[in-house]
Amino acid sequence: MTQMGSPRGTRSSIAGGHRTILPGPMNILVFVKQVPDTETRIQLKDGSVDTSAVKWVANPYDEFAIEEALRIRERLGQGKVTVVSLGPDRVKEAIKYALSLGADEGVHVKGDGVALWDPLAVATVLAGAAK
């Protein structure tokens, strides 16, 4: 696991109209997946998808999650937003993009191959990274 970025202290919660002071800053974790850019032309090579010419980007829906996490941190006036991405070295670009949006820290969980197609394996690895 590779950590990237820089760190940022009492958060408040409004529940049922009452404001509760919770100990410590809020740490928000956002998982970011890298996906092919929608403008990429999919090409086949030897009966399978040729990914050599694919432009990879952060999933646009994950960008919404990053933006919301940043708004929450800003509203509270403190806390930390950490993005986590699982995949090969190319996912570092998605992490760098999230850091450029304002995330405080990025974590690259290295992984590649067929195991990334198994949802349970991916969930298990990401749950471990979240701890």
Short description:
This protein is an alpha/beta fold.
Topology diagram in text:
Elements: E1 2-5, E2 11-15, E3 18-22, E4 27-31, E5 34-36, E6 43-45, E7 48-50, E8 56-58, H1 60-76, E9 80-87, H2 92-101, E10 105-110, H3 119-130
Parallel strand pairs: 4-9, 9-10
Antiparallel strand pairs: 1-10, 2-3, 5-8, 6-7
Largest sheet, strands/sense/barrel:
4 strands, mixed
Total beta strands: 10
SSE class: alpha/beta
CATH architecture: 3-Layer(aba) Sandwich
Instruction: Label the overall shape.
Output: elongated
What is the assigned CATH homologous superfamily? Answer: HUPs
Give structural notes:
The structure is a single chain. The protein has helices at residues 60-76, 92-101, 119-130, and strands spanning 2-5, 11-15, 18-22, 27-31, 34-36, 43-45, 48-50, 56-58, 80-87, 105-110. The longest helix has 17 residues, at 60-76. 30% of the residues lie in helices and 34% in strands. It is an alpha/beta fold. It has a single domain, classed as Rossmann fold, CATH 3.40.50. The strands form 4 sheets. It has a 4-stranded mixed β-sheet. It has a two-stranded antiparallel ribbon with strand order 2-3. One of its GO terms (molecular function) is electron transfer activity. Residues 48-131 form the Electron transfer flavoprotein alpha/beta-subunit N-terminal domain. Keywords: Electron transport, Transport. This is Electron transfer flavoprotein alpha/beta-subunit N-terminal domain-containing protein.
